[in-house]
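task queued by scheduler; priority normal; single chain, no ligands, no partner chains; default sampling; output format set to structure tokens
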Amino acid sequence: MAAQQPQPDPLLRRDAARLVAQHDPQRALSLYAAAMADAQLLDPAAVSPRDDRAMTLASREQDGDEEKADERVRVGVTLMHWRHDKDLGGYSLGQGGYYSPQRYTSVGVPVSYAWRNYDWSLLLEGSVGWSQAHSGSSRLYPDAHVNHKVLAQHSVDSNLDAISDASNSSGLGYRLRGLFERRLSDHWVMGGGFDWQHSDDYAPSHGMLYLRYLFEPWRCNLALPVTPLEPYSDWR
């Protein structure tokens, strides 16, 4: 039996630095690297924050197969590689509960089509990709000294020193995304869309509908491509 006690959700802070380089808007080849430090704060036991540093390397090559003022078709290839210092993806005491494989590699092929006129703007995107993730064996309860404090107050058997097995996974993923905006007046635009994603262990699909108010009257064509409102959970 593991020594656990009720606890509030941990607070997670993410600090990030990002470098982006891009060349040629018609044949967009970009490379960026990002280093992030994540800290989970366990308030009940007053534990010092644990750092989990991550490095992300990504490249994207995208062809503007057909570029017009009011229409755009693009096909691309993306490559991505992550590294986390620790895998803190579990939900036992001391874990972070966020996806953090120690090594992650993916390749994808995205396709997008965008079109607009005075009253409408549409965007349709699709992609298929393959990914592989690996994490080595690690402690099930990273903060063993905290758990031993809890055990000292209770006479129970525990698995505080348990080690989780190394894991390897790979698979295909699919995504289909559609967005639209419709002019209602010079100040009001209605928008909406859906985002359907599917893989073996991850399917965060959602839909949205929103109203946008423009402080200055807009009498030109709508934006290309559609730039929807961004959910708070996606902010960085």
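post-processing summary
- Confidence is low (pLDDT under 50) at residues 1-10, 32-49.
- The chain has one domain: 60-234.
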